[in-house]
Specification:
Elements lengths: L1 E2 L14 H14 L1 H5 L4 E4 L3 H18 L6 H27 L5 E3 L3 E3 L12 E7 L9 E3 L6 E5 L6 E2 L2 H9 L3 E3 L6 E6 L2 E4 L6 H11 L4 E6 L4 E3 L7 E3 L1 E3 H9 L9 H14 L2 E6 L10 E4 L1
Parallel strand pairs: 1-2, 1-12, 2-9, 3-9, 4-10, 12-16, 15-17
Antiparallel strand pairs: 4-8, 5-7, 6-7, 10-11, 13-14, 16-17
């Protein structure tokens, strides 16, 4: 299981054009060649934060200018899952053709079940969408940005419980297909008498990918980010890159506040979830390091 980081799609200073995103995704897919050349079965998850924000802006503009109904957040999640999966399929196909590898790429729009009574719904914390000069009065929860950029909507980030069609995702991967799934952490849904329905929330994509990896009994879980390894005392005197972390070490570093929330802490938690429940290794590293057998920081049991 590989979780693409945000820079696999959109990089600092870019506008997020189609051409920019496709070029970024193609480079990320090219970095996966060492795994593919080893014959690994492969499932790819990805983030979608900026893309969902842009979708919310488009819906808001369409509503204001043309009277079109703005779609709810779960719809925007599905919309961006499909568009990003299309980019990954297109880019991966090019990479496979150039490498002479015969593998098919399959994408599944993925719902992820969360608990309706998850405590996260009582304390929305995940910022989404644009900044506003004044706090909107639409009944949603907004927080003022500490950097003075305005007000921003915040939604819940509940824990992922179950991945829809995970048995099919696993089967397709074990048959040799490259599967794109669990995009953006999945579309958050809650179970009800008439089936599952979407909710206004964002699931952490690394944690959702970890749950998927556990369910599939994956051998390895790669979390791709913009640094080659995990560091303690990051950007401080005595900064140290870690080659390995035991579960106990990882948990202690988290308790000590070594990893920033919104940055490395969620990735380490996702790695802990995978290793605790599956027994394989979690490797946190840059995409470009995957050709190195000793790349990244490895969380092991």
């Amino acid at each position: 299981m590989v979780a693409f980081g945000g820079n696999a799609l959109l990089r600092a200073g870019q506008k997020g054009t189609y051409a920019e995103q496709l070029a970024n995704v193609e480079e990320a897919c090219r970095c996966l060649l060492p795994l593919l050349e080893q014959g690994c079965g492969l499932v790819i998850g990805h983030g979608n934060g900026p893309q969902v924000g842009n979708a919310l802006l488009r819906h808001e503009a369409g509503s204001a200018q043309f009277g079109l109904e703005a779609m709810p957040m779960d719809f925007c999640g599905a919309e961006t899952q499909g568009s990003i999966a299309y980019l990954i399929e297109t880019a991966m196909e090019r990479v496979l053709l150039r490498a002479g590898l015969d593998r098919r790429v399959v994408s599944l729009v993925t719902r992820v079940e969360v608990a309706a009574d998850d405590p996260a719904f009582e304390k929305p914390s995940k910022p989404v969408g644009p900044y506003y000069a004044e706090k909107p009065g639409d009944g949603a929860t907004y927080r003022e940005d500490p950097a003075g950029r305005g007000w921003r909507k915040v939604v819940a980030s509940p824990k992922p419980l179950a991945i829809s069609n995970i048995d099919l995702i696993e089967r397709l991967a074990r048959e040799g297909n490259i599967v794109v799934a669990v995009g953006g952490g999945g579309i958050p849904v809650v179970a009800g008498r008439e089936g599952r329905s979407g909710v206004e929330a964002v699931i952490d994509k690394d944690l959702a990918c970890a749950v998927a990896a556990v369910k599939m009994k994956a051998d390895e879980f790669y979390i791709l980010t913009d640094v080659p390894k995990v560091y303690v005392d990051f950007r401080k005197p005595g900064e140290r890159a870690l080659d390995t972390m035991s579960l106990a070490d990882a948990q202690q570093y988290l308790a000590d506040g070594q990893f920033a929330e919104g940055s490395m802490a969620p990735k380490v938690r996702a790695g802990i979830t995978f290793v605790q429940n599956c027994g394989g290794e979690c490797i946190i590293t840059e995409a470009g390091q995957l050709g190195n057998p000793s790349c990244g920081t490895r969380i092991t049991k």
